[in-house]
Amino acid sequence: AIEPHAPAAAAPGAIDRFRAAYGLLLERMRAAYPQAEVWCCTLCPGRVAGCPSPTFAWNLRGAPFKSYNDAIRVAAREHGCNVADLEAFGIDYEAVDGTHPTARGMRQLSALIASCIEGAEPDERLLPADLFDETFRSGELCPGEACVGCEHARGTGSSWFLVCERNPS
To answer: Does residue 6 sit within a domain?
Structure first.
């Protein structure tokens, strides 16, 4: 059995390594499929199903979520790829554990991606009303530097699955 463990802080340079690895992935994809129209999606915050307010841990391991998205945007630009900027919508998708989408969460993500591919500006008012409403508005719950060790952080069984239980009041 795999024992659950608490997340640790990301190593220095984690974002730079992520950007380089993402760039290498795109470089290899472009080499293998030079005529392909490649789309890169920014990451979108998940929310535990049934929670009326955000639960996403924005600084999970001390590496800000937005920095990963910036790295995706830069790598996509450097390799001539399109970006489906899911983060720009400012809304959460429904997730089983805050990370893995439910069936509704998958429909939400596909609606966000389709909207980007169709060329629409990120505007939640253009999304299907049966999938999104004002309660899915994203929000950073904490200005802290890392969620590791925070009293509001709750692990969901893995070092990468963590949700924030801070009351957004």
So the answer is: no
